[in-house]
Amino acid sequence: DILVDGKVCDCDVVVTCQVGDPVPLQVKLTNWSKHSVGPFALTMMPYQDYQNGVHNYDLQDAITFVGSNTFYIDTVKPTKDSVYFGSLLFLYTGDFYLNIKFHEDNCSRELPLSWLCLPSVHIRATEPVA
C-alpha cells in the first residue's frame, strides 16, 4: 500500500501537492506468504517522464527527500506488515513520478538481486495558494 499526503495511491490517480510543503509518504509491505521474507531494501526514486521514452532521474534541484530515500527491512513475518515513512519536498512545479522498488539486501548470495517494482506514483506539484 502506498499513501501520499495521507491518500491511498494507485497507478490511475494523480496526487496534487504544493511546492514548498513537505509531502508525507507511507509505504506498507505486507507479507501474504507462509514464510518470513527479507532482508530487503526499499528505495524510492523520483523522476520526470518526458513522454518520449526518456525518464529524467537527475532532480536534485527540483525534489529533495526529508530523511532518506532508502529504508532497510530486516524480516517480515507471515501475515505481518512493515510500514515506512518519509517525506518529499518539491522545489518547482511540474509532474513527477516516484518509482518504489524492493530488492533483496542479502550480499551473501551469488545470484543477481531480485527486484519488485510497484506501479509508479504520479505527483503534480503546483504553486502555493496565496
Automatic annotation (TrEMBL):
One of its GO terms (cellular component) is trans-Golgi network. InterPro entries: Ig_TRAPPC9_Trs120_4th, Trs120_TRAPPC9. It holds the Pfam family Ig_TRAPPC9-Trs120_4th. Residues 16-125 form the Trs120/TRAPPC9 fourth Ig-like domain. PANTHER family: TRAFFICKING PROTEIN PARTICLE COMPLEX SUBUNIT 9. This is TPPC9 protein. It comes from Certhia brachydactyla (short-toed tree-creeper).
